[in-house]
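[job 4417] fold queue: 2 targets
>>> target A
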Amino acid sequence: MPETGRDPNRPSPDALLEAARREERTRGRLKVFLGAAPGVGKTYEMLTIGRARLKAGADVVVGVVEPHGRAETEALLDGFEVVPRRAVPYHGTVLEEMDLDALLARRPQIALVDELAHTNAPGSRHPKRYQDVEELLDAGIDVLTTLNIQHVESLNDVVASITRIRVRETVPDGVLDRADDIEVVDLNPDDLIERLKAGKVYVPTNAERALKHYFSRGNLTALRELALRRTADRVDDELLSHMRANAIPGPWAAGERVLVCVSEDPRSAGLVRYAKRLADRLHAPWTALVVEGPRAASLTEAERDRVAEALRLADRLGGDAVTLPGGRRIADEILAYAQSANVNHIVVGKATRSWAFELVNGSVVHDLVRRSGNISVHVVPGEAVPTSDAGARRPVATAATPAAFDVRAYALALLATGAALGLALLLEPYTGIENADLMLLTAVVAVAVRWGLGPSLVAVVAASLSYNFFFLPPVYTLTISDPTNVAAFLLFTVVAVLVSNLAALARRTAVVSQGRAKATERLFGFSRKLAACGTLDDVLWATSAQVAAMLKVRVVLLLPDGQAVTVRAGYPPEDMLDEADLAAAQWAFDNERPAGRGADTLPGAKRLFLPMRTGRGTIGVIGLDADGTGPILTPEARRLLDALADMGALAIERVRLVEDLDRAERAAETDRLRQALLTSISHDLRTPLASVLGAATTLRDLDAALPAEAKGELLATVVEESERLNRFIVNLLDMTRLEAGAVAPNLAPQDVAETVDTALRRTQKVMAGHVVAVEIDPDLPTLRLDPVLFEQVLVNLLDNAAKYAPEGSTVTVRARHNGQSVRIDVLDEGFGLPEADVERVFDKFYRVRKSDHVRAGTGLGLAISRGFVEAMGGTVTAGNRHDRLGAAFTVTLPVPARTTPREIAA
């Protein structure tokens, strides 16, 4: 937002500080080659620029470049120093990543780093390549990099809606915002499609699939527009910073911006709508501006309502609402703001003031037209809102009118004047009559500041008459004999009137400012309270309590539940509404207009109901009730309610969006689990069934021809695969019980060593190819466990170790007493767990794939083990061994109170 309250002819301090930081910084410079899609030539352009810098004498090094088999790109790499990549083992393969440490040690002047959005292999220092680039920049190394528009975080949803493909690798917008230079590498969609067909982007099989989905002409055109617009926004921001740093008044016609001037005129809402249409035609941002001059304090409540409603309308239509303090020349403030914001279109209403009013106060429209320079001024008639409609939309009580004649204030004004007169008479022998008028003027100013214009005018009359009666000869009469004293008397009266007016105006402005400061402070506190609310109930309670406290009313909040609205919160708590109130609330929600007490619709209701709106429409209804009869809200209270309701509505919408996102994530997780379950059933369960069926069929058909040894092997296969199938089914059933919350442990004192021995006997066939080492402390306390569940935990952990440890290796089961808990470790001598999989191994249906020799499974064993252990009050964790290669699973269970080894021995 442009700075306000400063001389537009002076440079912006913030812009100058930013320029100074850029000049003094030791951080490297970042240049991003931005493209709409793969294949537009970003890497080629980056290498071309790098080669030009290299020829100019710069120290240029290639950190990482992905040529993707394109011959022309590979040819450009000739002559560059390329830092060897770092090998990273991952899932039985070796991935090559940029060697960040080697690049930092080499410390070139410029580093070429391709694919900014790339995700690094697990085990790298940073999970994302853009974080590697940030470290290079912090080290003072300039970086040239490439990025596609679909990887920009803020555009992720937009790209997904266009292409129907969700991009997982994204770069925060802040990285792009901090870039020193962005160059768009553009290519016509038809030319890009031809490159794709020619095999210059993907291999032929992938290219054909890409043409049918991502690389359609419509998708490429939309992505191209996104890239150009994102870059144009960046250039526009740079232009504004340059203009402010150099005190350039503007506007520069580099982009369109619309400013609409809002006032108390009934046509202001029409002007706002016109500005919205104009901005849409120009594809430009727009702002609604209110300048509060000296007349703002004397506006009627209806006029203040119109200003507030116009600003709220601008906010709902997607514009910015700005309020500025101003002096008597409103046009100067408008033009200063327009120049600082690089506005080139000002929308203002056609003047309807009388010539006498314009003669005294000036014409804002005429001043704008005469002094706007290169800014286009749109003078439009606007659309006045009919009085009947305005009244229907704003059912508020008339503000309490101050008493026309406050006897106390006027009496005190006369008393203050009398006190000043007495002091002047007392001091007259010493100071003469020259200072008497100053003492009386002081009393007039004091009265104006304390009690306002009316009492001050009475004080002026009293002071003038007193000055004439007591100090102008002949004294003690109201006649003036000397003509020069007539001029003195008239001058004194005029000065007193002017001073009283100015002092009264200052008082009104101060009172308004104090009221606004107080309301702003409370609104800010309310916004902080809403920001801390994480659930819908918290937001509703905070909103209802704040409205009730600030407006001194009773509040209910209703939200839609299907087709009807229901009470969700209230202050004081309120759960039931009568039929009339419910009907009024439903009507207010359906028609987006107030209803109920004091409104034109259903005025017989006990409460007044007003819709709560956001940019997405009406999301609820707020109901107000107060003691007494008649309308509830004054105009000032209604404006405050509008602000509170808008903030509450936005908070409700925010919480609901979070809930929608959570539901979407749960739905996606459910879908993933369903797919995994189908995969498990179709493969993992069919495999043992096929083995059983094959062995049984062979026995049936070749029973007579088979030797006894072969029959024994086939029968063993049937038994082994049946047991395997039984384990799979048991795991599925156990997971179903865990998901349903039906696991209720039957806790009883158990000996850990005995349970370990039972589990080893159950897994004897599974562990046949491994050496099992058991290390159990002899003085372990008994634990309160469910023996069936704990045995299944150990069986699952041993089965997992047997799968991932090579044959002939040792699997160790260790149990140690550790303070108030017992720790059971299952250690294998396999390849260990990748860092990224340490927590994921406990996810349902997740399996770490190491090599082809690993037996298949459902991916449920570890998830079930964690569920069972936690049901018994313990924890289970995964990690890697510190003494050698291998995985380590640790079960920690609490020791019951007053259980000691001595008790066990007894």
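>>> target B
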Amino acid sequence: MQSASDRHAYPAHWEADVVLRDGGTARIRPITVDDAERLVSFYEQVSDESKYYRFFAPYPRLSAKDVHRFTHHDFVDRVGLAATVGGEFIATVRYDRIGADGMPASAPADEAEVAFLVQDAHQGRGVASALLEHIGAVARERDIRRFAAEVLPANNKMIKVFTDAGYTQKRSFEDGVVRLEFDLEPTDRSLAVQYAREQRAEARSVQRLLVPGSVAVIGAGRTPGGVGRSVLGNIRDAGFTGRLYAVNRAFPDDLKELDGVPAHRSMRDIAEQVDLAVVAVPAAYVPDVVAECGEHGVQGLVVLSAGYAESGPDGRERQRELVRQARAYGMRIIGPNAFGIINTSADVRLNASLAPEMPRPGRIGLFAQSGAIGIALLSRLHRRGGGVTGVTGVSTFVSSGNRADVSGNDVLQYWYDDPDTDVALMYLESIGNPRKFNRLARRTAAAKPLVVVQGARHGGAAPQGHAVRATRLPHATVSALLRQAGVIRVDTITELVDAGLLLARQPLPTGPRVAILGNSESLGLLTYDACLSEGLRPLPPLDLTTGASAADFHEALSHALADETCDAVVVTAIPAIGDASTGDAELAQALRSAAEQVPGKPVLVVHVELGGLAEALSAAASTAPQADRRAPGAMIRPHPFRPLDFQAGNPAGQSDTTKSPTTLIPAYPAAERAVRALAEAVNYAQWRRDAADPGKVPEYEDIDEKGAAQLIGGLLARGQGLTLGTDETCDLLGKYGIDVHRALHAPTPDAAADAAGALGYPVALKATAPHLRHRADLGGVRLDLADEEQLRRAYAELTELFGRPEELRPVVQSMAPRGVDTVVRAVIDPAAGAVLSFGLAGAASQLLGDMAHRLIPVTDREATSIVRSIRTAPLLFGWRGSAPVDTPALEELLLRVSRLVDDHPEVVAVTLEPVVVATHGLSVLGASVRLAPPPARDDLGPRTLPTY
């Protein structure tokens, strides 16, 4: 082993699992002296050409001196990292710190030479790009700011690795060698490159699970029943288009088939490649199964077995070991304790789940952490997607169980550019990486709707089996941040399905104006009231009377859709009685015909006990038989579908002149449900329009960022975390142009009089004891004290009411112009990141929770929206004849606080209360700031898979 003088402590935090370009995984870790044999074996498998490119000369083998040099590192000036699969090296990278003369050096030298070597069999998988991200992060941690690399001109692959990384770089050519120098400070372009690579790799890793060419079910029992045998039958009955195998070590030697599926005792007995293994064996046997799968080259696992983190501490450790073992072989896992996965594509037809029936094919992607909720979602879509509201089905379904590896973030990466998914529905009980989820959700929502319902919102802890970062933010704040990212947040799975069906069938509304028509005046009025409750702008309902014919509905709907003052139409329908009543099919055809003639606006139907109408509304335009690719005896269903319109009147992926084969109009059994779904669509459409121009983070010339950094550094030198005193708070905020009205301590009446004399009358006298702070309702504040006599009288009253001055902590402050009291807060949450909050001070925010929230950094448009998004915002804009206050000054204050926290992550909490906003300008009367060492920002580091 290396001696203590030759090395620093082993940096275990540099170890990481990564997803490569092809969807496989590798482990990156520091190279140590124990890796000598691995290094030699790795080098022997590298081609002569690759060795020549690395050393600029023929170099058939490593000498003992080379091996010593490449395995002995001090982890500061000399660092080597290896990418491993199955414990063996597939690539290496190292840096050596150099001085200005190019010779080996130590700190404060901030440049290093870097070099890679990738095994030929693994070239093209993105290994070098991943290693560059990690060695760059290591170098920054060791105060290295710049890399230099010398590459032969013919080594185009390695030159591309450096040039594509997105760093600011300089390129030169000397003595037949290309010299590249680049700064390691992340840039917008380098982060964009990193995120794009992350998306491609993680999407590909999920695709390998959902689109396998072959599947083995391990644990399929010999007798009917049981999890393994059930899943085997479900895969077979769904008509899986690839190869299927049944595996069970208990099979007799002479058993060749099980239910018509080839049967084997072990994965080793299967001659062909197996892409996906569904594991349904007791947890104690899973490690042996994973080892067999890894040795066989299986690409991914769906682990249905229970007995992991949901069962307690021992199970949690078993789960961690399962993930470590699978990733060591380059495999990803769905589960354990999973319900399974489904892909309805005609090219795949995979039902590797416990769902006994394959869902109808469609354009809705489903993700559920809970198996029970997954069953409920599939069941509701099955009922409503085929009989109640139209033939709308599922593209893919993932139930992640304990979410030990593959999570909702990974599935979002896959859905983002999946051409078969137009709407994403997610049931989440926990969010393992909220920052990343927010980033991915924002990007996904800009392309297709993402509807989320959160379970366990009020439980205070994540469900058993889910290891997640703790957050101090209340659920309402997390929900607001999700909405800011474009997520359609609903409260129940019923609302989840309601919104999903509308978004999957109809164009997005261009505004909140709603036309209402139908044959029931009462139902129309209920719909009208529901629209008002949801913040929509309904037009007066049009009553067609109970004697309305199909032609009357057609004419009324056509007229409403053509009306430029309407953005959406809700049709209400009740059963008619009599021989001349309109039939369900006739009415449905009339509504579909009108919607097709005037496309571009969403149409919804509220029906009362009209099952026939709902079925007719969703009837296919063509009932021609489909090609049967399923197993004999399996049921086949038509699945016509109108693609989602990302823009009004323009289905996704189609030109304006291309029409979908049929119009599917969603129907709802209650006006409230229809209108709530429509309101979500209206809000989402508005978010899409706003997201197209998100605004900018303004620059302010009077901000002293460097001075603030020096002040913060000096203050933090006192300890790990501290709340600043009044003078320090004012000094720090002042460097960002935030002036605080100073409050002078008044421990005696004479001190109060002296303070008032220094400030100038009129003044305010306040008690700042914790139980009286910001509680004007308790009488601890005296305002507009015009002279010393009034001040001394007020001082005596306060001490008489509340106790001695040392208990009251009284202060004197100059009076501010009258206005509206508000509160501005910023906090860095370890899970969600930096959050800016705003509301009115007092009961509105404390009792009613009327606060608005935005992620930092906040743009000018977001600052405008946060001021207007609280329910009590009218008080700022002249409510009941009062004078409007200076909201532009308030927005500027919000932007300055955002800049302070964004520029200096050591500022972990800021509270400005009260901020009195007057008709001209504002006054910050109270402020507190807390400093602490900045929390780790894993979202800015190199790509890694989470560890739980």
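[job 4417] complete. Note on B: The CA atoms of residues 583 and 613 lie 8 Å apart.
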